[in-house]
Amino acid sequence: MKINIGVSNRHVHLKKDDLEVLFGEGYELTKARDLTQPGMYASAEKVTIKTEKDQIGNVRVLGPARNYTQVEISKTDAFKLGLKPPIRTSGDLEGSSPITIIGPKGELQLEQGCIIANRHIHISEEDAKKYGFENDQIVSVKVDTEKGGIFDHVHIKISKEAFLELHVDTDDGNGFLISSDTMGEILDHE
Amino acid sequence: MKINIGVSNRHVHLKKDDLEVLFGEGYELTKARDLTQPGMYASAEKVTIKTEKDQIGNVRVLGPARNYTQVEISKTDAFKLGLKPPIRTSGDLEGSSPITIIGPKGELQLEQGCIIANRHIHISEEDAKKYGFENDQIVSVKVDTEKGGIFDHVHIKISKEAFLELHVDTDDGNGFLISSDTMGEILDHE
Q1: What's the rounded Cα separation, in Å, for the pair B94 and B112?
Q2: Is it the case that residue B89 has pLDDT exceeding 90?
Q3: Which of A23, B99, B157, B185 has the most CB atoms less than 10 A away?
Q4: What is the per-residue pLDDT for A188?
Q5: Which residues, at least 6 apart from A113, have a Cβ–Cβ distance to it below 8 Å?
Q6: Option in A152, A168, A171 nearest B148 (CB)
Q7: Which of A87, A152, A171 sits opposite B174 (nearest CB)?
């Protein structure tokens, strides 16, 4: 079963209150580009993420606003920032790493909120039923590039509406030389 | 078959003439730390690697001097520098990417010499015979971490003396969360 692959660069999700802390009262995100998942977009807004050790600027805010604030980085970023974030599903932030987010109008010192996203496959309820996947099921995906291999520990993430796609971070994307037209293959699962 | 894993950060190998261009006539490398491969060491010397687009400082020179000058970077570095280096075995530099190396006493504008190293396993002649490997044979290695999987396209590299070890770049190392005590397993091969 073939599947598209999206490589996610470091990014931030914000809840409405935190968006206003960073960008000002009543601020709304500006859509810059639709993402492949229905309703999701890259905003024009960028922030700086900061720790005691270092900082990274120009980190994109994704929209729309969520009901939690979350920073997703790669292990490479984590070394630079001196963090050891857990590998997590979006929104599962208990015990995740502290981080400061700096916007043009203010900053947020988060006691937790920074994670390395687990590898995951977005799939619609309809496709999940059709292909026999359950939510949070773990699968493996083979990628046949010049420096490819198999990604294990890939989480199935079912949404009502979804574009069928594997999401990996930039370490995985660059390690396996994944480009915009690289396809993966979901391996047989029990 | 279990195997140690070494993650190689970006680095430079220099031939004697080029070492002298960068560091001065008669210059010799200073050993900072032995590497796992017999005779190889990280030197105290660092250079800057540069392209028209960007540059990266503090790039370690490995010793001893070789009979070719070569810059090994990751795909992440390649994006930063605006290069598209080929995936290569050390020393196979025909058609590799141009790059400038800057040292304290001079600089080298190389028309070729920058590669992304292929994944490879160092193995001694004795071990290769014992385990049935041929030089440049391609194998796969499984890595069982929280974000692990399988590396395909791993080249067997036989030397008279060698410490048995898989070498991957920082993209692969960080993508698979490889730390100093992570072991790999060479999968069955034909």
Answers
A1: 7
A2: yes
A3: B99
A4: 76
A5: A68, A69, A70, A71, A93, A96, A97, A98, A99
A6: A152
A7: A171
> Which residues of chain B have a CB within 8 Å of the CB of A87?
146-147, 177
Q: Which pLDDT belongs to residue B61?
A: 98
With a cut of 70, say whether residue A21 has pLDDT above it.
yes
**Alpha helices, DSSP H only, in B74-184?**
75-81, 125-131, 170-175
pTM score, whole prediction: 0.96
Give residue-wise pLDDT tens across range B116-147. Answer: 999 999 999 999 999 999 999 999 999 999 99
Nearest CA in chain A to B172: A175
CB contact under 8 A, B152 and A152: no
pLDDT tens digits, A124-158: 999 999 999 999 999 999 999 999 999 999 999 99
> If you average pLDDT over residues B78-87, what whole number do you get?
98
A184 neighbors A166 (Cβ within 8 angstroms): yes
Owner of token pair 């999968």 = B187
- Contact list, A171 vs chain B (CB under 8 Å): 76, 171, 174-175
Give the closest of B74, B174, B176 to A74, CB-based. B174
ipTM, 2 dp:
0.95
Instruction: Please list every residue in chain A whose beta carbon sits closer than 8 Å to the beta carbon of residue B176.
Output: 175
Contact between A5 and A119 (Cβ < 8 Å): no
Tell me which of A76, A168, A172, A174 to substitute to probe the interface with B (most B C-beta atoms closer than 10 Å): A174
